[in-house]
Design a protein that fits this description.
This protein has 441 residues and is an alpha/beta fold. It has 2 domains: 279 residues, Zn peptidases (Aminopeptidase, 3-Layer(aba) Sandwich), CATH 3.40.630.10; 142 residues, 3-Layer(bba) Sandwich (Glucose Oxidase, domain 1), CATH 3.50.30.30. Helix content is 32%, strand content 27%.
């Protein structure tokens, strides 16, 4: 095994990356000037470190809200529903909006649809169904609803968060839809019966985004590639300090550290665009590489939201028991407090490579029901809620793990995903990604 002289991870360097991405650039919504500036900063840093770098531009269907409004009607009284936000890829409404009685959608089961007369009404969905499933989406479209008010039930708070769908889902779901915070939706249920008017004005069109790729070629096993990735973009209305400037800082600091070393295996650092619309950049990258090149990728480490002040460091493994046990042993060896568990999850940038059979770890820091983040997609995802100490520790630990992986004569786990997990990957890909998906505009 090669031996490496490791240098210190400095909080000041992490803070500098976070300051540029969050304070100087700010919001990095997909396809925006902010996302482009962030991509340029990342590729510039990778080049400065000495990596072989490229920018991979790609086209995608973007969506930008101009005006979102919902009005509550009770008798002769009309009031604006507060904290209403956008639902990505919702169609715009005609002048005057769409109007109907509000009906609380408690289930997508056939019995609910037989019992309730919902045609011509405005649905209120608080986690009752997932439109990622095309059969559910078509059932809602066939129900005769005029519009929908929907809630992200992963975020049980009163503040506004933009939510929505992936661009390919719009083929099955095209109902005028707005979002509402969880607690505000509960308040709305208490006011029923009532009517609502939904008014949506949004622009949709084809724009460009960018994947940033920097590579250190291995000196012994150059055709065995380890991908280390994060995503550049943030959602509307926030700076995405944890989600995912923390991941970008992780990638940049590891690239800086490892560029100085002679690595046995190739390490490819990628910062993807348009993750927040179901990993469009990562999916586009996966579709751009040949099958023979994809087989060279032996492992993917995806880093998304690692810096929260509160939470539990979590490694979500999609691979074999050997991968899970290797990560657990490394965490124990390095005295790192981190949960390790198997999971198939399509909602970050490792998943497109899972479709190709590449084992992965999604490194994250969960703090809400061990499944989500209290700051998720809100104004609270800011620098005040990110810990430099937490970022530094996770970067240091994974620096040591990756150096171990790049130096071994043989990888300590196979380049495969167990049959049970792979069956789940294929099932989820078929539902959520509509795989194989070729972007159509």
């Amino acid at each position: 095994m090669l031996q490496y002289q490791k240098t210190k991870i400095r909080k000041a360097d992490i803070a500098r990356h976070l300051d540029v991405l969050c304070s100087q650039i700010g919001n990095r919504y997909s396809g925006s000037k902010g996302e482009k500036l962030a991509a340029e900063y990342i590729v510039g840093k990778m080049s400065d470190f000495g990596l072989k770098t490229i920018i991979q531009p790609f086209k995608f269907l973007n969506w930008i809200p101009k005006r979102i409004k919902a009005t509550l009607i009770r008798g002769r009284e009309e009031t604006r529903i507060p904290n209403v936000g956008p639902f990505l890829y919702s169609p715009s409404t005609k002048e005057g909006g769409v109007e109907g009685d509000i009906v609380y959608i408690e289930s997508n089961l056939p019995a609910f649809f037989r019992k309730r007369k919902i045609r011509g009404k405005i649905g209120l969905n608080i986690g009752a169904f997932e439109i990622a499933d095309p059969e559910v989406a078509r059932k809602i479209m066939d129900s005769g609803l005029r519009g929908m008010i929907t809630v992200d039930d992963r975020i049980p708070f009163p503040w506004r968060v933009p939510i929505g769908q992936a661009p390919q889902w719009r083929d099955d779901y095209s109902l005028p839809t707005v979002s509402l915070p969880y607690m505000k939706a509960i308040d709305l249920v208490k006011l029923l019966p009532a009517r609502a008017i939904l008014e949506i004005d949004a622009w949709s069109g084809v724009v460009e985004s960018w994947n940033v790729i920097g590579e250190i070629c291995g000196c012994k096993y150059p055709d065995e590639i380890i991908v280390v990735c994060a995503h550049t973009d943030s959602v509307l209305y926030n700076t995405g300090a944890d989600d995912n400037a923390s991941g970008c800082a992780f990638v940049l600091e590891l690239a800086r550290q490892m560029a100085k070393l002679k690595l046995a295996r190739t390490v490819r650092f990628i910062s993807y665009g348009v993750e927040e619309k179901l990993s469009v950049g990562a999916y586009t990258y996966m579709r751009s590489i040949q099958k023979t090149d994809a087989k060279k990728i032996v492992f993917c480490l995806n880093v998304d939201s690692i810096g929260g002040r509160i939470g539990q460091n979590t490694a979500l493994c999609t691979g074999t028991p050997a991968l899970r046990e290797y990560i657990r042993r490394q965490f124990d060896k390095l005295d790192y407090s981190g949960e390790v568990r198997d999971e198939v999850n399509p909602y970050s940038d490792h998943f497109p490579l899972n479709i190709c059979g590449v084992p992965s770890v999604w490194m994250t820091r969960l703090n809400l029901f061990k499944a989500s983040y209290w700051t998720l997609h809100s104004v609270h995802d800011n620098l005040q809620n990110v810990s430099l100490d937490v970022c530094k520790e996770t970067i240091s630990v994974w620096r040591d793990i990756l150096l171990d992986l790049t130096s071994r004569p043989k990888m300590p786990f196979p380049r495969k995903i167990s049959q049970k997990l792979m069956d789940n990957v294929r099932r989820v890909a078929k539902i959520s990604y509509r795989h194989p998906w070729n972007p159509k505009f």
